[in-house]
Hints:
The chain is an alpha+beta fold. It folds into 2 domains: 108 residues; 216 residues, Alpha-Beta Complex (Aminoglycoside 3'-phosphotransferase, Chain: A, domain 2), CATH 3.90.1200.10. The chain has 10 helices and 10 strands. It has a 6-stranded antiparallel sheet with strand order 1-2-3-6-4-5, sandwiched between helices. It has a two-stranded antiparallel ribbon with strand order 7-10. A two-stranded antiparallel ribbon has the order 8-9. The N and C termini lie far apart (46 Å).
Amino acid sequence: MRPQRQAAPTLAGRPAARDPNPGALVRELLRPEAYPGPIPSGVEVRHTHASWVFLTDGEAWKVKQPVNRGFMDFSDADRRRRCCEEEVRLGRRLAPDVYRGVSPIHSGPGGHAFVGEGAVVDFAVRMRKLPEEEGASVLLALGRLTPRHLQGLAETLAAFYQASPPLLNAPALGRADIVESYQGLLAYAGWLIDRPLLERAYRGQRELVAQHEGQLLDRVARGRAREGHGDLRLEHVYFSGGRAETPLVIDPLEFDAGLRRGDVALDVAFLVMELEAHHRPDLTTAFLSRFAAASGDYDFYPLLDLFASHRAAARARLACRVAADPATAPAKASRKAAEANRLLALAASYM
C-alpha cells in the first residue's frame, strides 16, 4: 500500500495537491497545448532511471519520477521541488544559460500542464534544449571528439574547482567507501555480475587505499577537496556549436551534497574512466595533462587508478539496480546486466 504523504507547498507557498498519477502526468504532458506559447510543434519524452524529460522545439522539461531508490529519494512533491531548485542552482555553475528555472505543473480540467490555474501538483527543471550532435558522447561515437575538445573542458573544470572554496573537513576516499561499494555490489554477485571479477576489483581497491592513505588525506588538508559536479560523464558534456572553446556541463548530482564533495581528481575520474572504456588514451592524456597544468595539480596521477576504478564500480552498481528493478523491461535489464559486467571488468583492470 502506498504510504500517506504530506502535501507539498508550491513555489508561491500555497499547498499543493496530492502527488499526481504518473501515467496520467506523462500522457498529458505529451500534449503541445500543455506548454506556454509559442505552442510547440510536438513533444517527445525520454525516460531515465530518475526522470522524465519532455523535449519541445527548443526546450527540455525535466520532471523527477516519484520514486525512492534508497540512495535517491524523490518520493514526495516537496522533495522533488527542492531537488529541482538545487539542480538549477548547481547547473548554472557550468551551464549558466541552459538552466531557466523551476516550473510548476498544474492539474486542471484539461489535465496536467505547465500553464493554467489548476492546483500545483509537481515541478520541473526548465532548460534550453541542447542539440544532440553537440554532446561529447555523440561526438566520440562519430570520431569527432578531439584532444582540443578535452583540453577546453579541462580548462573549464580547473577554473570551476578553483572558484569553489576548499573543503578542509571533507572525508577522503577511504576503506569504508571501498567496503560500502563492495557490499552494494555483493547483492548482485552470481546473479547479475561475476563474483570472481568483483572480488578481484575489491581486493585491488583495498590495497590501493591502504597504499595511498597518507596522500589521500594530505590532498584534503591541502585544499584539493571541493564541491564538484558529482556525475561528470561524457553524456553530460556538450560543446556549443561543436567548438572546443565552449564546453557546457549539465545534470549535476543534486540529491546528495556528500556525493559532490571530495577530491577534484575523484570528480574528473568519471571522464577518465569513460574515455579509457572507449579505448581513447589520446583523449585521456590530452585531458589530464591540460587539467594538471591549468589547476597546478600534478599529485593526483598516482591516485587515478584507484579513483577511476571506484567510479567504474559505482556505475556498475547503478546498472545492477536498473537491471534488478522489476519495472525494467527484460531487454533493457539484459543490457544493463551486460553493462554492469563491462564496468566491473574495467574497475578490475585498473588493479
